[in-house]
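Good morning,

Attaching, inline, the backbone tokens for the sequence recovery test we're adding to the shared suite. The designed sequence is right after.
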């Protein structure tokens, strides 16, 4: 028997950035996950969890499988907490060497952690989510380095390179580039050419579309007085630090709040302005301009939901071997109601994009063999309909007249 779901789509069309973070529920005392669209106060959804607490700057997002991860506490248990944005399933698994310097490879779903287990040595682990197994893939000897800088890691999913910004024993800031796909462990270390007497570089994010490394840079004078904060680009070859945008309007920030939207090239973080008001900063790396505005109260450990980008970019290239996802869509062209049929057994997400890449519609559905969408409010033109599961994405073109 076919189950039909009819959805009416509004006329508002704009690029949307989907975010998820963690926040304390003042009534229950537990941790809620908060989902929302950047700067949109009407889009907030609160999701209760089994967690009583979490560790600072330990959030990460597996875009290939739509899983939010954080090192959490529930009662007497501590481990790697996960929440799947498609299925709504949560779990808490012990045994991982998860740290506050971790990042996911969007093309494989594997996580990489940097940990100082022994003085002067940085261990690099590959963590397989499916088997809950850590594998030590290499060790960097860095005598005199004072631990690991938190939230200073980005991942190049195109080439399999972990980028980490840390201090050498000079002390001096340097960029480590660790190739995790080579059978023989290797890395390079490039000194960063900072312009001020002292700098602290953190909130590192990698743009996998343009292959550019971004970060925040706090600068200090020779007496270690704070002199400014900016968004920078790091030249991966020369180590040059290029100032892309001044954030002097925000003398403070919320740790663990930076993320990067691959679809729009937006660097996001939560800043605190000179009036002591928290605001979400959305910095456009194409125009080097930013807007600021609403952010849910007390939210931190923020990640950007890059699931659509990861699945359309990497799954379609054959990196993950699975049977092809497909669906039927009719009529085409259409003026009002379009029907979508698929054989998927789990939850699905339907996304509609204009020919300019602007998002016209996105919604999650529980298992249903047939979904009907009312497109009568859309302007005539060519659209892309994406059917997204926890593992794959399928796309079709649709003409609305």
């Amino acid at each position: 028997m076919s189950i039909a779901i009819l959805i009416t789509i509004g006329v508002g069309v704009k690029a949307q950035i989907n975010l998820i973070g963690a926040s304390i529920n003042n009534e229950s005392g537990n941790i809620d996950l908060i989902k929302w669209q950047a700067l949109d106060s009407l889009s907030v959804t609160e999701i209760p969890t089994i967690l009583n607490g979490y560790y600072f700057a330990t959030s990460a997002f597996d875009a290939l499988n739509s899983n939010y991860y954080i090192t959490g506490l529930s009662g007497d248990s501590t481990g790697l907490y996960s929440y799947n944005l498609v299925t709504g399933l949560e779990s808490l698994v012990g045994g991982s060497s998860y740290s506050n310097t971790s990042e996911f490879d969007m093309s494989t779903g594997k996580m990489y952690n940097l940990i100082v287990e022994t003085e002067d040595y940085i261990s690099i682990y590959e963590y397989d989510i499916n088997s809950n197994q850590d594998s030590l893939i290499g060790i960097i000897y860095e005598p005199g380095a004072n631990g690991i800088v938190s939230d200073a890691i980005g991942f190049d999913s195109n080439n399999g390179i972990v980028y980490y910004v840390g201090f050498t024993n000079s002390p001096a800031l340097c960029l480590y580039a660790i190739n995790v796909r080579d059978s023989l462990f290797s890395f390079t270390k490039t000194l960063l050419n900072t312009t001020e007497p002292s700098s602290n570089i953190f909130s590192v994010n990698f743009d996998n579309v343009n292959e550019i490394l971004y970060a925040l840079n706090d600068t200090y004078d020779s007496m270690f007085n704070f002199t400014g904060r900016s968004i920078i680009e790091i030249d991966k070859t020369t180590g040059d630090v290029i100032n892309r945008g001044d954030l002097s309007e925000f003398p403070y920030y919320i740790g663990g709040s930076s993320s990067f939207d691959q679809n729009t090239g937006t660097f996001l973080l939560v800043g605190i302005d000179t009036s002591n008001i928290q605001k979400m900063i959305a910095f456009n790396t194409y125009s080097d301009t930013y807007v600021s505005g609403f952010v849910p109260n007390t939210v931190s450990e923020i990640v950007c939901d890059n699931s659509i980008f990861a699945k359309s970019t990497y799954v379609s290239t054959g990196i993950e071997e699975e049977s092809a996802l497909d669906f039927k869509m009719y009529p085409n062209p259409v003026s009002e109601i379009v029907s979508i049929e698929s054989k998927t057994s789990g939850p699905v997400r339907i996304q509609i994009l204009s020919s300019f890449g602007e998002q016209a519609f996105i919604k999650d559905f529980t298992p249903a063999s047939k979904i009907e969408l009312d497109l009568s409010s859309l302007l005539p033109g060519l659209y892309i309909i994406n059917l997204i599961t926890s593992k794959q994405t399928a796309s079709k073109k649709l003409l609305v007249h």
